[in-house]
Design brief:
This protein is of the alpha+beta class and about 200 residues long. About 20% of the residues lie in helices and about 30% in strands. It is built from five helices and twelve strands. Strand 5 (about 65-70), helix 2 (about 75-85) and strand 6 (about 95-100) form a beta-alpha-beta unit.
């Protein structure tokens, strides 16, 4: 699947960087438009966490922008992955993560404690709160009922920089995923366990 995505985006003038994640078969990836951005540095940190620093193809050479991706399986691992990015991100920066744990205001407190201060949630800034849920836990597949405790908001987009603003985000779903007649999650309408997150950011 990743190979197909890369081939499609390369044909659309995108460059890319990928780091295998700790979980087998998974990876963190960053894509950027070749005609707009050039990568100046990139690196892999704890657990396959990926960071890339970009500079505009046309514009001041001292302008930099960092993007980081983290895939974690729980609160402690997420904290360790955040800690591994300390000192590696230029401002402004964007951090995208599947944290493996419920996110909220305490997530930003943890990020500050682990060396990434000054970050804000794109969803909270646009919508006033995090999404109701972004992940289907495995038990939900077979529960046969709309059990909220088997859905959680564990994925997020955070950004830093005094001049960076979140203009828009996808709003997610107010209800749980659709189910088939036998009570299972309808995989024709929801083929993955995580919602795709999209945020539009602008650095003024």
């Amino acid at each position: 699947l990743l190979g197909a995505v890369i081939a499609r985006l390369e044909a659309e003038d995108f460059e890319w960087c990928v780091a295998p994640a700790k979980q087998g078969g998974l990876a963190n990836a960053v894509f950027w438009k070749r005609s707009m951005w050039a990568a100046t540095t990139w690196g892999e940190c704890d657990g396959g966490s990926l960071h890339v620093t970009l500079t505009p193809q046309k514009g001041p050479e001292d302008v930099q922008f960092s993007v980081a991706c983290i895939g974690s399986s729980g609160e402690e691992e997420f904290a360790r992955h955040v800690r591994s990015l300390q000192g590696r991100l230029s401002q402004p920066a964007v951090l995208c993560s599947a944290t493996g744990t419920e996110i909220g205001r305490e997530t930003l407190q943890m990020m500050r404690a682990e060396g990434l201060p000054g970050y804000r949630s794109a969803h909270r800034e646009v919508l006033g709160s995090e999404l109701k849920w972004t992940e289907i836990l495995s038990e939900y597949e077979y529960a046969g009922t709309e059990q909220d405790d088997l859905l959680r908001a564990s994925d997020g987009i955070w950004f830093s920089g005094q001049r960076m603003k979140a203009l828009a985000v996808l709003g997610g779903h107010k209800k749980g995923p659709k189910r088939t007649k036998d009570g299972r999650v309808c995989r024709k309408t929801f083929p993955t366990d995580h919602l795709p997150l999209v945020a539009v950011l602008q650095n003024e």
